[in-house]
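Progress against Task 2.4 (sequence-to-structure conversion) is shown through the following example record, which the project officer requested during the mid-term review.
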Amino acid sequence: MDYYATPTTLYNVQVWIPCGEEAGGHFVDLHREQLIQRFSEVDAVLKLLRGHTLTPEQYQSISTGRSNVEKMQKLYELVPSWGRERKDQFHRVLCITNRALVDELEGEHFVVRYREQLIQRASSVDRILGMLHRDKLRYDEQNKLWMEGHSSHMEAPHDQISTEELTSASAGVRRRSEDATSGSWGKDRCDLCHREKNFAEEVKPEILPGPEENQKLYRVHFPQAGSFRCSETELGFEVRAAVTLKYNYESWHCHQTELDMQQWMIAGPLFNIWAEPAGAVAALYLPHFMCLAGGEAGVSQMRMAHFVDGRMTLEEPTRVMPFHAVLENPRFSLWGAILKKGKAMLSSSIHGITLLYRALRAENITLHLYLIPDILPLRKVIDDNERKYKSIRVRKPPTTKPLTYGSHYAVSSTSNVEITPEELEFCYVDPQDEHPYMEIYTQSLVDKLELSLVKQSDRQLIWKALVRPGDIEHSSPSTERHTGGGTGKTMKDHLLDTLKNLLEAEMKEFKSKLTDIKLEKGYHSHVPRCDLEKADAVELTELLISHYGEHYAVRVTTMVLDAINQRDRAERLRRATVAGQE
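Structure tokens generated for the chain above:
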């Protein structure tokens, strides 16, 4: 009953039970009254059903209900006319939005109800153990199970692990949607897609010169079995034993003709991967940027393209997560996630972000606005390139509403600005290629600059930002304001000194509190958590100043220090920065 995979596709179990199907009828029919009376997340359900299960007219009509009960009653007026496919979709959306209630109504879980059939008829049990191994089975227990033979494989794990733990891999919606801790991954990337359970360990690879000019080669050695995610590429690996991995980005251009001929669209970066020994890798996690909850495209349309000697073969993912497609026991060379085209392409939603920079070498105030799929390598390449030309990041909330390939987007503003080009077509560009952007020029910025990004076809607002003078200030020796009497130190220096003096645990607490401190009116966003994770004191100082401006960055820092009981440091920072202004 997983939103992403039925037990058949996840475990290769030769017993297939339709999603949402129960003895006596479908789940949504059997529990009609309970769902009408008790379901509270109705608006979220309607948004997820809109566009495929519900027409725009039906969505609008149901949304006018005055209460959750009335909305559910209106929705259920349509259910009797639905076939199993739409009822299955309804059931999956209910699982996403309120898994606890669905579990309560369903009673026994699939793996409990069909325990004997699974024991007798399941195949590929080694693969099941490999998935369970990541979270719960100790290495010696797993090795013992593998050596005892298939006849006892299904019994041992069930005795050692609770039912909830045993079904963690198949009940992915429950585990990820209920996990609201900071350990869950991808939680700030999309309002529609739920979170992924974090990999056991994030690793920073060694970065080497690649085989071609301006190309990077990543190398990492995993000394033991476990689950890992690369901090530079978002690639994930589950490994059975010690292994050395090398990987780099490759261009989709060489394969674009074949993709077009077979009606496939790019859903993530293309990687060339080597493993030694190859058999040590149990599963590959390929990053993708499709918003599977926000459009008509579903997991059944996603494939993993595998290129060997220039020829493309397609592999069906073992499972598809909100931000990764997973393949077990992969054979290595070139891999990338793709999605079937057809009528769904026009409504296939893509996680998108904006990146905004001020070009310091340009005249007056010139901004560069990028619109790209939300994938880490693209962000890093653009950021590195802009920094190379002495641009500074204007930190505004980057997440957009879901985007679509081929759509054209334009910037509008109430201020007097020049925008070149007038619109951008949203498309995928390989990390190693030059990325298009919009140039926004204005002679001065006295008060504020309002920017709105709209979809040209229907004028839908997908992103907006308010740029203030402090957002684009650049601190330099000639412009920084000196404080602290005759010490010659700037406000930025005092801020940096304060952050440098924090111990490791204190810095971790500081970053955590920084993302939820209450801001003054006019400041609507915090520094993104993803930017804070690896930032040292120097980088954190730059982040604070570029996000809030110098003066308010100091104010925010003192508020956070007070909140984490570092009041002495907060007071010293106040005195040092105020002394030079009197």
